[in-house]
Amino acid sequence: MEHKRLKIFRSYWLECLTYMPIKVFIGLWSIVLSVYIYTLVLSRPIPLLYLIVGIVTGLVVWVFFEYVMHRFLFHLRLRSRLGQSFLFIMHGNHHVSPRDRYRNLMPAVVSVPLTIGLYYLYCTIMGPLFGRPFFLGFLCGYVLYDGWHYATHQYCFSNRILKSVQRHHLQHHYYDPDRNYGVTCPWMDRIFGTICKITRKR
Fold first, then answer.
1. Can you list the GO cellular component terms from the UniProt entry (predicted)?
2. What is the pTM assigned to this prediction?
3. CA 198, 87, 188 angle in degrees (round to 5)?
4. Residue 198 has pLDDT above 80, yes or no
């Protein structure tokens, strides 16, 4: 079922920049990850221990980053009109039209510059030997997160575990937007006390 698309900008070109079709997402990040892994493992070898520890650490950090970003940035309360407009463009529109398949993924105009910036930040802070494998784990975490986020809004799952994780995020949209911030890791909400408690009527 096709859902009505929310119009954010009057300009056709600006409006297009807010879209990210799933085929473009898969193509873009498949290329980025393939090239990055090639340069990391083959062109500029890194010791196996650094590689494994860096990737695992990057994935773990992503889990916390995902939760903190969603809770404290995407749902930030701002009073100024400019601030509210910024947050609406960044995330609020998704709550108005959560099943818009072109806006379930982070648009490239945001994700690509952010990816480049974080890469240089991590390599500067940690050094390239650890920072580069760390960034690979972090980037894989992001791609899995965004892909799963798309799936939660566009597909129905029969698998019990997947269905439970999907339900967790949909409750954030349809029951309480101030709960259930973890998209890929629902247990983060249990740790930080932001789990959605639905009272069923008898």
1. membrane
2. 0.92
3. 40
4. no
